[in-house]
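Could you help me review a protein record that somebody else here produced? What it holds is a sequence and that sequence's fold in token form. I have pasted the whole thing underneath without changing anything:
=====
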Amino acid sequence: MKRRADRVADTLTIGGLAKAAGVNVETIRYYQRRGLLSEPERPPGGIRRYGAADIGRLTFVKTAQRLGFSLDEVAELLRLEDGTHCEEASALAEHKLADVRKKIEGLQRIEQVLDEMVHRCHTERGNITCPLIASLHEGLSEVGNPRE
């Protein structure tokens, strides 16, 4: 069975493209302004039409974003998509992987601290200051700088 993108010859309006790719029309326009998606010529008296290649391009962008790539990084990957720049693309992915691992480590530290705070809230009862609120007022060196 053919994919929907394979059956589409430049017949889609921007609304049809948005629906087929699962994005908003404004997202398409934004990607066009950013140079991530080309804007087809408008025929005299007609409307612009999009096709399977445009769906594929949007799929590429959205998939890369779900993997954590910024739009600038997506633009760089698109520049490398001719297949002859695999080493450069791999280097971008390795850098992204290192970033993801760093974020995971930070989230694990946050999880530990929150777990400890919740535990203290459940065990320290009576006429005392809430341990969670008190800790937030004091600041936490265990979590690191929240702006990292």
User: Anything to note?
Assistant: DSSP finds seven helices and no strands in the chain. The CA atoms of residues 126 and 147 lie 35 Å apart. Helices lie at 4-7, 14-21, 25-34, 52-66, 71-79, 86-123, 131-138.
